[in-house]
């Protein structure tokens, strides 16, 4: 039976606006992988060869250009994913979103540079959502008005007419909103920025909030549900944006301020798979003597690339009381210690986006731009994870051996 929290999360998972923003953030992360790769190649070529491999097209310049265009691209991207989620005409939602966004910004600041300010990013996320909700209301009204005409007019004509009317009335409502905002003389972009980035976004940088999400994910994995699929849409957009801001700050010579970001998450919560089960495997190799356990040996290669379903379902870890404590605590302990070590300057904040499947150690080196001190502390944290799993692994190996001996006797 699902708990009340699980029911709420299942409902949130089906909220189309949340999914649309999550899809936008996932697309952004893919772009960040490419930009990170360019910047890393640039640093390596400059360090070892003394010259840039991209003369005239510095990765920093490309990143700054991308940041300048990000609000505009965000309007299009969020509008696109909102349209896909609601199954509306994509071009209609994008047109309405762009008109609403540009109209409001133009009324607030009649300088073209205003469209390139990162402060408009919050509006670029929120206003496409407003547009799709307006379009949804108009769609419902038109569906009601055309309800009794299906027998007299062919369906194809009704669909075309409804589509045109949806767009026309949608744009009309958008223009009315812009006119009202101009007449009243209020600034809606700044409050959006303050609420979204100075409020909600900063909330995700609190370690307690992050640990709550980690605990829920581990709990759902342990219950046999896909923890990431249930929870990720609620926090990934924030940590992906944190990765972008760290990259931009570092590229321009500023300090990376956001400790909790996408690379931090994959390195201390998901490396070797959910629950940091690489610690289970390494502790197994420490206590194994002569008898091999196939499910553990066969899972080694996939765990290197952060895939641990063979362990979760093979041992199984699901609903296994012996591994419950270690499985839930390991990522929470490492995340807490990593946050503390980074906050006091012993570890470096991650400044690059690194794909989730990159192995442990290499991920940290890439994410920090080659900081060896951070790698050393990552290894220390890995040893702590091994120690957390060691008692449960010893018990599992001992029980497996005893079960094998019993099976052998029963076959005599």
UniProtKB/TrEMBL annotation:
- GO CC terms on record? plasma membrane
GO biological process terms, semicolon-separated: phosphoenolpyruvate-dependent sugar phosphotransferase system
Q: What does this protein do?
A: The phosphoenolpyruvate-dependent sugar phosphotransferase system (PTS), a major carbohydrate active -transport system, catalyzes the phosphorylation of incoming sugar substrates concomitant with their translocation across the cell membrane.
The record places domain PTS EIIC type-3 at 1-392
Q: What is this protein called?
A: Permease IIC component
- Its topology with respect to the membrane? Multi-pass membrane protein
Q: What is its main location?
A: membrane
Cell compartment(s), UniProt:
Cell membrane
Family annotation (PANTHER family): PTHR33989, PTS SYSTEM N,N'-DIACETYLCHITOBIOSE-SPECIFIC EIIC COMPONENT
UniProt source species: Erysipelothrix inopinata
Q: Which UniProt keywords apply?
A: Cell membrane, Membrane, Sugar transport, Transmembrane, Transmembrane helix, Transport
Q: Which residues cross the membrane?
A: 21-41, 61-83, 90-108, 114-135, 164-184, 204-222, 229-248, 268-287, 325-342, 372-392
* GO molecular function term, any single one: protein-N(PI)-phosphohistidine-sugar phosphotransferase activity
Q: Name one Pfam family in it.
A: PTS_EIIC
Q: Which PROSITE patterns match?
A: PTS_EIIC_TYPE_3 (PS51105)
In terms of domain of life, where is this protein from? Bacteria
Q: Tell me if Transport is a UniProt keyword of this record.
A: yes
């Amino acid at each position: 039976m699902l708990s009340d929290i699980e029911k709420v999360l299942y409902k949130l998972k089906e909220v189309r606006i949340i999914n649309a923003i999550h899809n936008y953030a996932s697309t952004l992360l893919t772009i960040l992988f490419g930009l990170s790769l360019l910047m890393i190649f640039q640093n390596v070529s400059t360090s070892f060869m003394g010259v840039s491999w991209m003369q005239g097209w510095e990765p920093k310049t490309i990143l700054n250009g991308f940041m300048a265009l990000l609000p505009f691209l965000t309007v299009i991207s969020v509008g696109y994913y909102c349209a896909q989620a609601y199954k509306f005409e994509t071009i209609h939602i994008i047109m309405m979103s762009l008109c609403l966004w540009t109209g409001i910004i133009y009324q607030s600041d009649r300088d073209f540079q205003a469209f390139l300010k990162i402060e408009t990013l919050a509006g670029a996320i929120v206003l496409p959502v407003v547009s799709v909700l307006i379009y949804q209301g108009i769609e419902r009204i038109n569906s009601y008005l055309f309800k009794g005409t299906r027998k007299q007019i062919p369906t194809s004509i009704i669909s075309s007419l409804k589509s045109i009317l949806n767009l026309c009335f949608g744009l009309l409502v958008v223009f009315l909103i812009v006119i009202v905002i101009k007449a009243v003389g209020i600034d809606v972009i700044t409050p959006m920025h303050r609420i979204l980035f100075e409020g909600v976004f900063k909330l995700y940088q609190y370690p307690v909030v992050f640990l709550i999400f980690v605990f829920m994910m581990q709990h759902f994995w342990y219950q046999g549900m896909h923890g990431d699929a249930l929870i990720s849409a609620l926090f990934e957009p924030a940590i992906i944006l944190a990765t972008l801001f760290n990259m931009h700050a570092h590229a321009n010579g500023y300090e990376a301020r956001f400790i909790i970001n996408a690379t931090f998450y994959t390195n201390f919560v998901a490396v070797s798979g959910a629950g940091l089960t690489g610690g289970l495997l390494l502790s197994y190799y420490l206590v194994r003597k002569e008898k091999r356990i196939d499910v553990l040996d066969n899972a080694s290669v996939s765990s290197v690339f952060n895939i641990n379903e063979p362990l979760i379902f093979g041992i199984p870890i699901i609903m296994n009381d012996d591994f419950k404590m270690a499985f839930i605590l390991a990522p929470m302990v490492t995340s807490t210690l990593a946050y503390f070590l980074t906050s006091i300057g012993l570890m470096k904040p991650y400044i690059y986006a690194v794909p989730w499947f990159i192995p442990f150690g290499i991920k940290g080196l890439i994410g920090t731009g080659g900081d060896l001190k951070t790698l050393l502390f990552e290894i220390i944290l890995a040893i702590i994870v091994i120690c957390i799993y060691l008692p449960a692994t010893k018990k599992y190996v001992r029980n497996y051996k005893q079960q094998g001996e019993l099976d052998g006797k029963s076959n005599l």
